[in-house]
Amino acid sequence: MARHESDREDLFAELAALSPRVEFQPGQSQRSVCAGRRESTGGWSLFFGPDEVYHFDRDGRLRRAYVDGFLYRSEGRTLSRLRRQRSQTETTLLRHDLTVEELPQFLTRMHTMLNALSGEIRGSQLRIQRVSPPDGNVVQQLEQALGLALAADPPLAPALRGP
């Protein structure tokens, strides 16, 4: 992982562990979106550029996210927002659990992005740039994963272990 998250130059290349994976430009956007499925969890990851990333489990529930410079991690009923505080010698994670007001705002933003992407897939408004493996039906699989994520109830994966 990059020392600073925004240092990423080629997201698609960084996602080599995901299969299948795809890079495309939705609609008239100049911004690339990358998506891929993680073999170990069966869940999809969506990269709306380097600063807005969502990771889901196989049931479409949110596990982790990276949005606006913050890491988010599922705690089951809410998300922890983790901010990296760096010094010359160490990195410390400062944790804040989202409140009952903050969580719906976060989920609304995420669902807005997922709904827009799903609509662009249904409307065939994607310009595929790269896909691996080249002979798969990655866009169809992604559309199914988006449907799972949009319908997931509860929307958050069980609490993740670790700090």
Characterization of the model:
It is a single chain. The protein has 3 helices and 9 strands. A 9-stranded antiparallel β-sheet has the order 8-7-6-5-4-3-2-1-9, with helices on one face. It is 24% helix and 35% strand. It has 163 residues and is of the alpha+beta class. The two termini are 18 Å apart. It has one domain (5-151). Helix 2 runs antiparallel to helix 3.
What keyword list fits this structure?
globular, 3 helices, 9 strands, nine-stranded antiparallel β-sheet, 163 residues, alpha+beta
Q: How many distinct beta strands?
A: 9
Strand content: 25-35%
Poorly predicted regions are: 1-6
**What characterizes the major β-sheet?**
9 strands, antiparallel
- How large, in whole angstroms, is the Cα Rg? 16 Å
**Class derived from helix and strand content:** alpha+beta
**What's the structural domain tally?**
1
